[in-house]
Request: fold
Amino acid sequence: DAKTTQPPSMDCAEGRAANLPCNHSTISGNEYVYWYRQIHSQGPQYIIHGLKNNETNEMASLIITEDRKSSTLILPHATLRDTAVYYCIVRVSPSNSGYALNFGKGTSLLVTP
Amino acid sequence: DTGVSQNPRHKITKRGQNVTFRCDPISEHNRLYWYRQTLGQGPEFLTYFQNEAQLEKSRLLSDRFSAERPKGSFSTLEIQRTEQGDSAMYLCASSSQLRRNTEAFFGQGTRLTVV
Reply:
């Protein structure tokens, strides 16, 4: 699976949009971009995924650049409950490990009042 | 069904003891994964089941680690002769084969402390 690069930490004011970047310059054509988050002491939670088109759901929007070498997760109106570690994962579907996810260290997002 | 369930939530054991963790996946999910997470790191994939078949186990950390899913439903992860380095959060996740590119649902994890 392609390697991803994320900033280790970010801050965001409550009510503002949080834009979390991810670089995946070695992504292949059949690799998807997944975002998960992990709130302290809980298991990771799926947020969104995409291949090449921008995606939106009730939690977030995913913007993938045209060359697919980077993406941005957007939380449109961050709340204190969005404070978590956010993981960007690039994964072939499927692989020898089924749908196993290769987590990195992620971005620790702190939403402040 | 309320999601992936893991038991116990916390386990403290003495070095050298064996421990077993249980994972109950979402009922219609036939894929099950085990991960380990140490402090400050993202989860690390250990092993994967599709139904009762263990299709990937080369990432288990040592031969002290083993996992089973005998009837294709719940799974257990056993660590024999525990070491202090085994202290970590052990996470289980499940997903459905019926949906391509489906997300995995994670349990709350079992936190192991080896003293």
